[in-house]
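Researcher: Here's my situation. A collaborator sent me these components and asked whether they could plausibly form a single complex. I don't have experimental data yet, so a predicted model of the whole assembly would be a useful starting point for our discussion.
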Amino acid sequence: MESICCAQVLYDFTAEPGNNELTVQEGEILTLTNQSIGSGWVEARNSRGNVGLVPEDYIEVKTILIISFVFVISLLYLEHIDFDIHRSLVFQSVILLLSVMVILCHMAVGSVYSFDEEWDDDSDDGKSTGGYGGSQAEEGGTMQRGGAHSTMKLSLNKFPGFSKTPNPEVYLLTKHISKGDDRLPIYMGEVGPVWLYPQIQLDCVVADPKKGSKMYGLKSYIEYQITPNTTNRPVNHRYKHFDWLYERLVEKFACALPIPCLPDKQVTGRFEEEFIKMRMERLQGWMSRMCRHPVISNSDVFQLFLNYRDEKEWKLGKRKAEKDEIVGVKIFSNIDPELPELDPAQVEQKYEMYSQFTRSMDNSVKELLAVGHLHWKRCTGPLQKEYRQIGKAFQNLSSVFNTSAYPREYTLKEALTATGKTYEEIAEIVAGQPKKDLHFLMETNHEYKGLLGCFPDTIAVHKAAIDKVKEADHLVVMNKISQQDKLIMEKNLSTMSYALQAEMNHFHSNRIYDYNRLVQFYLEEQVKFYETIAEKLKKALGQYTTM
Amino acid sequence: MESICCAQVLYDFTAEPGNNELTVQEGEILTLTNQSIGSGWVEARNSRGNVGLVPEDYIEVKTILIISFVFVISLLYLEHIDFDIHRSLVFQSVILLLSVMVILCHMAVGSVYSFDEEWDDDSDDGKSTGGYGGSQAEEGGTMQRGGAHSTMKLSLNKFPGFSKTPNPEVYLLTKHISKGDDRLPIYMGEVGPVWLYPQIQLDCVVADPKKGSKMYGLKSYIEYQITPNTTNRPVNHRYKHFDWLYERLVEKFACALPIPCLPDKQVTGRFEEEFIKMRMERLQGWMSRMCRHPVISNSDVFQLFLNYRDEKEWKLGKRKAEKDEIVGVKIFSNIDPELPELDPAQVEQKYEMYSQFTRSMDNSVKELLAVGHLHWKRCTGPLQKEYRQIGKAFQNLSSVFNTSAYPREYTLKEALTATGKTYEEIAEIVAGQPKKDLHFLMETNHEYKGLLGCFPDTIAVHKAAIDKVKEADHLVVMNKISQQDKLIMEKNLSTMSYALQAEMNHFHSNRIYDYNRLVQFYLEEQVKFYETIAEKLKKALGQYTTM
């Protein structure tokens, strides 16, 4: 069993001294010596024979991946066969091959679930991992199963003619007249340029995860129920549908709006319920953020996702969305700021400010995650242990006193036992607290880390546009473009800038709301935490006789 | 300078990971690389070139000790010369030699005080170190300067004819009639046999440490003022006088009563005031414990120490005490239990119980000290650092938010700053707390550890007596002793047992009082601690806008 359980390290991880951890580097191959450690950790041995704990989110189990890879290829092949026509010999033999693999995988992983989820996810969203933070240690990630390496990936091959950063030239040189339905107006609000917000804010509830299966039970998956507040009619979606939606949103909006990644898929699935709960929680967070966005929530593809009435409507909508031509930089042609044109210098100044702010906030959020991660480990590790030891020491003293045969022992003995038990309770309170308050702080910061990780891509498009416009004078002289073209470019750049400003104002408004709520909640829980402990100690204190 | 600052390790010390500590073993020679670390730590390099922190109580600075040793020898020589007669050439040259050494030592240590204290202590109580716990790591010791290795040492060479354990035979075979003044009665109290307690409990205040000097300022010392509640008239004593008293009490009472060691002397004296304060606190603790003991407090030597009127009375009393013949096992001849004689089986049963209890309590106290020590280090080390980091992370986030140029930033920015500052305050509260509550818990347990360390010696005398009486039948048969002798032995053994019972009941009563007060105080301070933090967080919470 052990022989086949090896794993590749995805991210550098530095061991904390005294915690039995193992320092590993990206790309390193480890042998897994114990996968049942729990709490997101596995025990592994490196090539130098050192054994220690590694966060399971930092590694990729190799054997599973290889088999999964074959699997995915097979499935991709199957996808091209029309299921409704006939089940040919080819199909049957592929099924047979898959069955053998399923059994092999079950043997390797020891869990039906982990394999199925694995397969499901790998086939569904195989392209959505990696990216942002790939070479950095994941500060908050290890405490929270999975969700980490989030960034928006501009699906480059979907934008014909784009190299790394989508080239805004196509858009800049075109004179646009915003069309009716797709028009995305920008108004001057109290805080500056803002998107048009709907009267009633869309929201939805992601709930009720259910295990479904297809292909004669060979392939199982989890289906979530999403109920929008507008129709109050639930729709069902699998993770792969969320991922499809994500891909569409990236294609369509990512040049103008940072689209945060979906919560990550996970490699092993030993804690089925816990994982599903966590993924649901994160899908809920992602959906709520999308719902809150006036442009995204109002888009056809998003509406389809929430409101489709039957399979047919869903399939038709899907096909339509996939054929949408207003994607990439073309989205700016829909944007219609009813505001005075900005000159390129103003545009550049805004760009610099936003670029600087998002970078700084990214660093700050990472710092908070890092210290939160440390604190989490301290509370659930050494601090819990220490309070337990204090509790035990008092109780042992009480036990010893109990053997004195001295007639006036009773009160003190009882009081010391109570004190010891109180400290044991405190140990559990301390260890349980991070889940109560730090969890939310970490999750939200994690989400923000993901969101902030998308800004550089989005902002890069603006930078490219600014550079193009800077070249315009030269191009006019060279007779490559007309003076008229230059003016169009400047107008279009102004439109892009308004889009960025509206988006930043949306971000700021959400950020202030989120962090206000977040820290408030954290402090409330912390106050309760300290008050609870004080209360418990007061009760123990009451057992002593006053002298 | 550095070259001469090497030190020998007195006790094994195991480094805690992540604290920059250095694991050292008894006997190892270290080079001191930084003596100005503070809080009881020095930085040292071992022979393998590893550098790290070591508790200064665990090491003995070598150069100082060597010079001190020569010094002590010289002084001992001086002590034998009558100062009042003449100052011969010999004396003058010794003074000259000493002066040169003083200068050398000053150069080596960089402090007048440390040398003088050193010298004073080494010459005064050179024999009172070592003993109990010598080979064990000192659990609570490092946080509290000095006071550790306490056990009573039966001054064996003062008990003629005793090998390791004082031999109770001399006493057992003698028929005693208790004399008037020295009689130590034992009564049956509510809790069993008890000493005769005085109407008013003696107590004293140790205060007002003053630096004195003699031998033309060459030798300086600290003199403490001790004021008993009986006379309210202060007397002055140096540490060496306390040590003299301790030696007398051990000589006279240690076979019957455990005499706890004095607080230890210290090797280096960099924190003059802190050290003097700590020693005074511990001398106060020791004196109070002695005052509380009905037998000790009533003894001539103890009364002399507290009540002498002038140098002459002190010197006469000293000489008388040193000539006291009722020492060692003879003390039992003064004991007069007005209670029915116990048979040897009853005696042995009591012995077993006390032996077991004191051993168990010793272990339990050591456990409490060990966990207290850990907790102290955690609070003043990693926890303080972590809360500071949390504070800093919030403040940094606030600074970043402040650069957004978004108009609705102010409240959140201010609230986050307040939150950050609150966590920085909490960091200091957490780090300062051990001095407020854990200190007293550690000190008292430390005192008990010392006291409990004396029981084995005292109890061993009883065990030896039990064994002698067990042999009595055989000796009667062999005609070595008469039947009458045997009955006398049994009666005397019964008297010894009553003494032990009275002493244990005294111990239990004090123990219950002390631990009740101790844990009560600790819990009170802990409650305040948690309430203070909750209060501070509540205040920070109030800065957020409710949404």
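Model: Some features of this prediction you could bring to your collaborator: Chain B has a mean pLDDT of 81. Chain B touches chain A through 73 residues (CB under 8 Å).
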